[in-house]
Amino acid sequence: MSCIIIDDEPHAIDELSELVEGTGKLELLQTFPDAKKAILYMQQVNHIDIVFSDIDMSVLNGIDAATVLNNYCHFLVYVTAYRDHAPEAFEARAAGYLLKPVNYITFNKKIEELDLKYQDIIKLRKDDQDFLFIKGGQKCSYIKIRYSNIVYIEALLNYIMIYTTTGHEITYIGLKAMEDMLRGRDIFFRINKSIIISVNYLERVDGNIARMSTGNNYQVGEKYKSVFLEYLKKHTLRS
What we know:
This protein has helices spanning 10-23, 35-45, 62-71, 86-91, 104-127, 175-182, 222-234; strands spanning 2-6, 27-32, 48-53, 73-80, 96-99, 131-135, 142-146, 150-156, 159-164, 167-171, 188-190, 195-198, 202-206, 209-212, 217-219. It is of the alpha/beta class.
């Protein structure tokens, strides 16, 4: 499971990072000294499995940030030195409340619990339908498209063009709305402000250029580059 840590105390980040590394079930993507910076990052990557967050922070406290954080993660886990925030934490739909200093046994017990829930989420996702319907050009017209057939999606003004293995279809929604619909399907990546690609049809990457098996080449934007490269590194064969 991917995770980030938010805490305004560097030593707390170091201690929690060691616990994360020791589980064997977590991948720490980033750490942040305040919730605002974390939110900006999450808005770029769209999803993190677990957010570990302190509560008492000067810029934006963890409770106030919860509404936004919960939109971008499966599990929000508070790690705090104070017991009296527990009612607020669970009202904020927190999946856990760990008291500092967190010991190895307590931390791993919580991760085991979250891992079981995560496996259920993955199973439901696999069991979900492998298609979507988009509105066609005619009134009451709907077109079925299989996710596995989508090659790339291009934004054109106030509509999008969905290119598939059999042709292309146009529908009048924004690229952001389509990106939200694809969230959780890890074969799709938005690589710049106008293009979402399916890595099923990605042939190679040369520098900042994504080359598709269809012959199309696209520039990878700076805003989307770090997340895309992390995915490539994760799936790169190593010696």
